[in-house]
Design brief:
Distance between the termini: 36 Å
Shape: globular
Structural class: alpha/beta
Strand order of the largest sheet: 11-12-10-13-14-9-15
Mean pLDDT: 87
Largest sheet: 7 strands, parallel
Number of helices: 22
CATH superfamily of the largest domain: P-loop containing nucleotide triphosphate hydrolases
Length: about 675
Amino acid sequence: MTLSLTTSVKYLKGVGPKRAEALARLGIRTVGDLLYHAPHRYLDATAVTPLARARVGQEVSCVGQVVTTGVLPTRRGLRVFRAVLRDESGLLECAWPGQPFLERQIKQGQLLLVTGPVRYYHGRQLVPREFVVLADLGETGPDRGLVLPVYPATEGLTHRQIRGLIHQHLDALLALVSDPHPPRLRAAVGVPELRPALAAVHRPRDLHDAEAGRRRLAFDEFFDQQLVQARARHLAKRARAGIAFALKKELTTRLKEHLPFELTDDQRRAVREIANDMTAPLRMHRMLMGDVGTGKTVVALFAMLLAVENDYQAAIMAPTELLAEQHGATLTRLLQPLDLRPELLIGRLASAEKSAVRERIARGAARLVVGTHALIQESVRFHRLGLTVVDEQHRFGVEQRAALVEKGDAPDVLLLTATPIPRSLALTLYGDLDVTELRERPPGRGAVKTALRTDAARKKIYEFIRAECAAGRQAYVIYPVIDESERADLKAATTMAEDLRQLFAELRVGLVHGRLSPEERDAVMRAFRDNAVQILVATSVIEVGIDVANATVMLIEHAERFGLAQLHQLRGRVGRGAAASHCILLSNVPQAAGRLKAFTETTDGFKIAELDLRERGMGELAGARQSGGVPLRYANFETDVPLLEAARRAAGEVIARDPALARPEHAAYRKRIVARYERGFELFRVG
């Protein structure tokens, strides 16, 4: 049969139905999948130690001829396969405990490469982690060592078997590969041609060679993904003409004059970028990413007023009623000097109130609208929607965000997020958006001191909480789970709330967790906001949205159970007023002390996001976006940001010239994306 990259792997010699099943568990179904199954590490056996110089305690790679072999029993009944190797320098014994079957594979006269630690057992003895038969009797093998690829393996299929399978078929598989990139692009980025790159990944001469091959695969991965993002961006901005707002500076200038504070340089730059987008004929599709307390709401308000002074309506959608009410209160306060009042549309309004608000929205009397999912109900009709703002956008699905946009005729879109992410991740997850970052904090915000403590300090911590509450302030106590039955070793929120009620009998203790209904949760949060509850015991459901300036203590139990970015979001709930605030991490796990200490030393959300990315890796974090993407397999975000940026530029140029990849020279790109990405077909099915 004729082999192609889409041929089922079961037709390869040495596979068969049983092995094909094991390979499928690794995601290898076609011969192309096998070719792209890259090693996850390499054993560098290029530096070969003469046998006589292998010292006890060292990790070495040696090459020698097998002089004798045999299986010896030990006192414990374990059978050990032993082989003595010889090279020009002398002899060395190798031992494989519990592997007597190797007697059938390793024969006298063979040339063997072994790599592993040297121990003392009746003399020097090497215990190989890996061995490779370089040459059988009578053959001549290489006079140097090898780089041995170690592949992700699965039950019933060892990495050595996978290595053998790939090695056996590599030349035939490489012959099927053609490079979709023109030489000019490869040269500009500094990556090798595809066929030699794949050969280097599987059969590298040295580690430098393997790394050059990996970089090429990483670039392709980024490039495919950026093509999808660039196409989505093209469709979002150009499919329907946007609104070219005029910069009238009526309401926006008045807002600036009446603000009770100075804008930061970051806020001014963000307002300029958004105004440039809104006054251009293409639709705005921008994300405003800023740490907790960097003033995203004010920036969004300038954008909303630009729409309003052009006789359009602007709407901001928040994920919870509490957050929508908070935005409503903030905007009402800031807009008072302008004689403008935002309308609030949330589920808990009485039906008569809701009808009245919907009627004002429909006839255009409501110019600024703040709401929750209630805004996207069928019964809501806008008179002339020009701008949609979505707060905490990751809490909404793609469809929900789209439903708000569909309420107008191609309105501009501004997404807000309080979850800073590294530039590399932003380009990967949000490549279809323009991204503005707010890093500067307005002056006058309270500082948050962060400390790491063990259980020994619990009594002191409780005394401190009591003193803060006695001074009229409030505290959060955060737990990672809800009840004891889930994890017996954790102090659960429900149990601890009871304990704290007894301990702080003079204070009111509230409890919120993910199993409460949204109404119950909101009621407790409102009571905390209004200082009717002084200590709020919670699971991480409170990490976004609630703004209680009076809360000055955040105690996080079992801090090691939280990701660093999540800890940062939780810490952002305090320090929202002028009073000094404190975040206390409680952990009795010594292994977690390093990462938690690093967290206590910075309050910069972007730095913490970098630490989080390093710790958890791309795969886990990328799940944050429903983009129909595939996880990255070859890219390393610590080293590959320049590759990602090169891929973004190159993909942008291709889509600018040929938006639907319809030209013959782009057919390979199109084919690869449609096969690889869920959204590929949807984005490239039409011209």
